[in-house]
Design a protein that fits this description.
Blueprint lengths: L3 H47 L15 E3 L2 E5 L1 H4 L17 E3 L6 E5 L3 E5 L6 E4 L11 E7 L2 E8 L3 E6 L4 E5 L10 H8 L9 E5 L2 E6 L6 E8 L2 E10 L11 E7 L2 E6 L4 E6 L4 E4 L9 E7 L2 E6 L11 E4 L4 E5 L11 E12 L2 E11 L4 E6 L1
Antiparallel strand pairs: 1-2, 2-25, 3-4, 4-5, 5-6, 7-8, 8-9, 9-10, 11-12, 12-13, 13-14, 15-16, 16-17, 17-18, 19-20, 20-21, 21-22, 23-24, 24-25
């Protein structure tokens, strides 16, 4: 006959046995979940390697975040999916950038083969602008600007031209390769007068009546200017730079951006952002940009500069985005940590604020490269 003590001991042993079984099952479930999640990620990655037209194929996943301090971001899948269905077949060829009208909040970009696009201020709707066939060529860089009270866009089309156009897509001026007589800079004139010269425009910006053009896809690695006279835009006299590693020279002048009456150039192969006066006098380079960063572009919002590298550094899952004060780096954002399909190389990042219900929300618009990809990140 079992005593009360024996019964109590048996009960305790049964309880401990059940607890250990449940704990083991719990651990196995957690292992299975982790294992299958990893398998699913690997399968999704393999699938997108084979099929790069992936805007519709957004995997179900837990909310991931990337960045540090105040600048931490997640992937906004809904706004990413607003990319126009008719443009899906052209998305792998994306190779441009963004700019916006600060008054309306409309963002402008280009998709090779599809055309020049306007994105609504809330980032939910895309529309095509203009029907000129030239707007279907690659728009490698773009700027919105106001000149003599009127709104314009200018686009840099590498290997072909710079276009100045109205917001409805009407082309005002087409600026072609210089002939070698335009500039008060002998090195630029000598280059363009040579039979071996090419036209490697990569980006364009505007400051106080002048368009500034980066010409970095070339041995003639310059910044050049375009001026307006009687409604026609043509090459101005100011140019500077040249290929080299001395202050004021470039190793692929890729992105160009006007801010606070200064011209900023993303000197890609040197991993620099370089600040110049509007007359082309070298001022300084940004500090605290990680070594090995192929900096493609620079923009500004929310009292910070936003930069992007072209390629991943080390074991990063994608090229990084940087949030920078101009003096120091405050956040490194890795879109690859968000499991965004295809997006590994990055051509430009553009900060954009959406005003909604009395509050402001910062987003980053990302232009991929090498298989192409558009994505929207949301600041948490």
């Amino acid at each position: 006959m079992l005593t009360k003590t024996t019964l109590s001991l048996c009960s305790m042993l049964v309880y401990l046995g059940c607890f250990n079984v449940l704990k083991a099952q719990d651990n196995q479930d957690s292992h299975d979940f982790s294992h299958h999640s990893h398998e699913n990620t690997a399968i999704a990655h393999h699938h997108h390697e084979d099929d790069i037209n992936t805007t519709d194929e957004i995997p179900t996943q837990a909310k991931l975040k990337t960045g540090q301090g105040d600048y931490v971001f997640s992937w906004d899948q809904e706004l990413t999916a607003a990319f126009p269905e008719a443009a899906h077949e052209f998305e792998p060829g994306m190779h441009g950038g963004f700019n916006e009208d600060p008054e309306t909040g409309i963002v402008y970009t280009g998709i090779p083969g599809y055309g020049l696009c306007a994105i609504s201020a809330d980032l939910t709707k895309w529309s095509l602008i203009g029907n000129d066939a030239r707007l279907k060529d690659n728009i490698h860089g773009i700027v919105f600007f106001i000149h003599k009270g009127k709104k314009y866009l200018a686009v840099a089309q590498e290997g072909k031209r710079v276009l100045v156009l109205t917001l409805d897509g009407k082309i005002v001026s087409e600026i072609l390769k210089p002939t070698g007589t335009e500039f008060k800079f002998a090195q630029a004139n000598e280059f363009f007068a040579s039979k071996d010269s090419n036209f490697g425009v990569t980006d364009v910006t505007y400051l106080k009546g002048t368009l500034y053009v980066a010409h970095g896809y070339s041995k003639g690695d310059f910044v050049m200017t375009i001026k307006e006279k009687n409604g026609v835009w043509s090459w101005g006299k100011l140019a500077w730079g040249g290929k080299g590693d001395k202050p004021g020279q470039f190793q692929t002048a890729h992105g160009i951006y006007a801010h606070e009456n200064k011209i900023l150039v993303a000197n890609r192969a040197a991993g620099q952002v370089v600040r110049f006066t509007k007359k082309g006098k070298f001022i300084e380079t940004f500090n605290d940009i990680p070594t090995g960063s192929l900096v493609c572009n620079v923009s500004y919002k929310d009292e910070h500069y936003f930069l992007n590298a072209l390629e991943a550094i080390g074991d990063q899952k994608s090229a990084p985005l940087y949030v920078h004060t101009g003096e120091k780096l405050v956040s490194t954002v890795i879109p690859g940590d968000l499991n965004i399909p295809v997006l590994t190389n990055i051509h430009q990042v553009w900060p954009h604020i959406v005003n909604k219900n009395g509050s402001q929300q910062l987003y980053l618009l990302v232009h991929g490269w090498n298989k192409g990809k558009f994505a929207v990140l949301k600041m948490e």
